[in-house]
Design goal:
The protein is built from 18 helices and 25 strands. The strands form three sheets. The protein has a 13-stranded antiparallel beta sheet. A six-stranded mixed beta sheet has the order 1-2-6-3-5-4, sandwiched between helices. A six-stranded mixed beta sheet has the order 9-10-8-11-7-12, sandwiched between helices. Helix content is about 35%, strand content about 30%.
Length: about 700
């Protein structure tokens, strides 16, 4: 399990001038606080239903409410590798897909009417079902809660909706830079195919079927895999009777399935970089394997991690932010797990021009904490911070019971939280130094830096051999075109014929292309202008009355401009812009790139388009594979077909070119219709075209 980092917090730090004179104690330093009261765990009645379901019951009569939480062994570690994403889909549709006795929409209305909720989740090792309701609705909600466990319906339309949401998440997964570096770091440390790190792709979503959900439910949802906690305003005897009524008839079928936890590869030192040009800073993440919660060294290792990078008084923050002024934030944290090794993370973000300087400063602090004892003040602050936070982690019955159920699920003692607190209180400076030497191993660190690699102050090769990570989101299982000289040669000849058809002399002298027109789509129309400066600059300007919005590509850099303001374009949107660049003006960039040997093209076969004979050519570009339909008689490009990803998943896109008109010796289409999944969605009407207008390269970056 990972934690999202919110680390770039801008604060004003007061600086103090050191003098030989002793500073007077502040009033706040002279305050004495009593020791926090011990947290008294609630009285828990642990029972087993007649079918073996383990139940923890806690009476709490402060409020007239009842809460339930079930944990079922399974989750991501239980899904077959050829059904990647199944646990995520299951966790969503288990709730949203209704039950066999009640449709999902009716359930939503009912729960809303009585002020209750039932939710389901999927994690690495468990599927969870949670419910809460008023005491007066206990019977009805427990019955429905049990129905979700025993009789989920997995409604088809809800499966489709959940899969659409998964595809949408895939399309946006590179938008947040800090999430990207953490994700890629986890893939390196756990292995890209590990359930702790593997990534869901579009084809994985397409591969998931309703029967997969049914099979998963039948295999893992059984009494001997289920742990349940109920707390709230009830009597234990009465609640046991209710649970027996609604869940007691549930029986396990066949032998209990075994879930084998994945092996974790041996740590190796590595340096990795990710080129991402739509960010202004370099995002640095370093990490290595950490501990389980039940490791005997958990307490001193946690305190060591806090001293190193746990807050505004930590060493990493002071060095990178306060002393060197390289970043708004820097830190580290330990992310332990219950059933496998967790992670140590170290992070910051800085200007590209100070990337190496910030990285070196962080490495120096990791080295320093391994070599010399921490100070008394550092140890005190870290321990007090843990103990103060501890009080608020268990300040309600709900928090305590949830934690106790989790401990029971992973076979930890139910008073494990107290054991950790007691261990933290006993941590010494020698303990911190010992675990720093044992667990922080610089020669086994994994370093990942994301940003504008060409602008780094020093190449990352200073720190070792560099691996470049490709985070391109594939639209389908990538199948590279096999070498076929004969088919490639014929493709080139057909493109030459197409160039003659549109005007070879004008095409050969083509430096830039400009068009002015309007986009017609469902709901209205919008004026636009497009600019293409060969070979890699492209812009589309949308006009909203007197306001214009420009989206521009300058090589790999994609930005959005409105007046004097600019912002990077998220990668998912930049990809769409790059795809449009290839087909601008009826495939002008495709033609040039094929003839210059920059992309591979192969002749496929004869076919038809719009009832006319056509020659079909496949063109492989970094964004997608385009299928070109060239009119067999004239050689003109009739249409381009390619695959894209939309809100509802895969889209079959066909751009149809009509009404060719000669402008300055070059025939270009004046009408372009875009069909998506065989339905016309967008139409472009072009009323002005300029060839070699002299557009400045600066136009695409300012």
């Amino acid at each position: 399990m990972t934690r999202k980092i919110i680390c770039l917090v801008l604060l004003t730090i007061l600086t103090f001038t050191l003098t030989a004179q002793e500073k007077p104690k502040r009033i706040i330093d002279q305050l004495n606080f009593p020791k926090l009261n011990d947290i008294k765990p609630p009285e828990v009645a642990e029972i087993s239903l007649s079918n073996g379901v383990v139940v923890m019951l806690v009476e709490d009569h402060d409020f007239p409410t009842v809460n339930l939480r079930a944990m079922v062994k399974g989750g991501k570690v239980a899904e077959p590798i050829d059904k990647n994403g199944l646990a995520e889909l299951f966790g969503e549709v288990l709730r949203s897909g209704g039950t066999k006795s009640m449709k999902s929409d009716d359930i939503d209305k009912y729960l809303d009417r009585i002020g209750a909720s039932i939710e389901t989740y999927s994690g690495e090792s468990a599927i969870e079902i949670q419910a809460d309701c008023l005491k007066e609705n206990t019977d009805e909600v427990i019955k429905l809660f049990a129905d979700f466990i025993l009789n989920p319906a997995f409604e088809d339309e809800k499966i489709d909706l959940a899969k659409t949401q998964m595809r949408s998440a895939i399309s946006r997964r590179n938008d947040e830079a800090m999430n990207v570096v953490e994700r890629e770091l986890n893939k390196i440390l756990y292995g890209k195919d590990s359930p702790y790190a593997r990534q869901v792709e579009y084809w994985d979503v397409d591969n998931l079927k309703k029967e997969d959900l049914i099979n998963y439910h039948q295999k893992y949802f059984r009494p001997d895999m289920t742990y349940l906690a109920v707390w709230g305003d009830f009597s234990t005897a009465d609640m046991k009777q209710k649970l027996e009524k609604y869940l007691g008839g549930w029986k396990s079928q066949g032998p209990k399935p075994e879930i084998t936890l994945p092996s974790i590869p041996e740590q190796k030192y590595s340096v990795n970089q990710i080129e991402k040009t739509d960010v202004e800073q370099t995002f640095i993440f370093m990490g290595q394997l950490g501990l389980r919660y039940d490791d005997p060294d958990y307490a001193p290792t946690y305190i060591m991690s806090e001293i190193l990078g746990g807050g505004f008084s930590s060493r990493l923050f002071k060095k990178v932010r306060t002393e060197l002024g390289l970043a708004y934030g820097a830190g580290s944290f330990m992310s332990p797990e219950f059933d496998h090794k967790g992670m140590f993370y170290f992070y910051t973000s800085t200007k590209p021009s100070t990337t190496s300087k910030a990285l070196s400063a962080m490495l120096d602090e990791i080295k320093r904490i391994r070599e010399t004892p921490v100070s008394d003040d550092e140890l005190k602050v870290a321990k007090e911070g843990f103990l103060n936070r501890y009080a608020f982690q268990f300040d309600s019955t709900s928090k305590l019971v949830n934690r106790m159920l989790t401990y029971r699920f992973y076979n930890y003692p139910t008073d494990f939280n107290k054991k950790i607190r007691d261990a933290v209180e006993k941590v010494t400076k020698d303990d911190v130094l010992r675990v720093a030497k044992n667990y922080l191993i610089p020669e086994k660190l994994t370093i990942v830096a994301l940003g504008r690699v060409k602008e780094f102050d020093e190449p990352l090769s200073k720190y070792g051999s560099v691996n470049t990570i490709d985070i391109t989101i594939p639209t389908g299982k990538k199948v590279e075109m096999a070498s076929n000289p004969q088919a490639e040669g014929k493709a080139v000849e057909l493109i030459k014929k197409a160039v003659k058809a549109i005007g070879e002399p004008a095409f050969n002298s083509l430096k830039d292309y400009y068009s002015d027109g309007k986009i017609l789509m469902e709901g209205g129309e919008m004026p636009y202008k497009s600019y293409l400066l060969f070979p890699d600059k492209y812009a589309v300007e949308l006009l909203f009355g007197e306001v214009s919005l420009k989206m521009a590509l300058d090589g790999d850099n994609a930005k959005m401009f409105q007046g004097a303001q600019s912002a990077p374009i998220p990668e998912s949107e930049a990809k769409d812009l790059k795809t449009s660049m290839w087909t601008e003006g009826g495939g002008l960039l495709l033609f040039k790139s094929i003839l210059e040997g920059k992309v591979k093209a192969q002749y496929l076969k004869e076919g038809t388009f719009g009832g006319n004979p056509a020659e079909l050519i496949a063109v492989e570009t970094p964004q997608t594979v385009f299928l070109l339909f060239l009119d067999k008689k004239s050689g003109l490009l009739q249409a381009v077909r390619y695959e894209d990803i939309g809100e509802k998943g895969k889209e079959d896109v066909v751009e149809i070119y009509k009404n060719f008109k000669e402008i300055q010796g070059l025939k270009v289409p004046q009408e372009i219709t875009v069909n998506i999944n065989n339905e016309p969605k967008v139409s472009n009407k072009i009323w002005k075209v300029k060839i070699n207008s002299g557009v400045s390269p600066d136009f695409f970056s300012k």
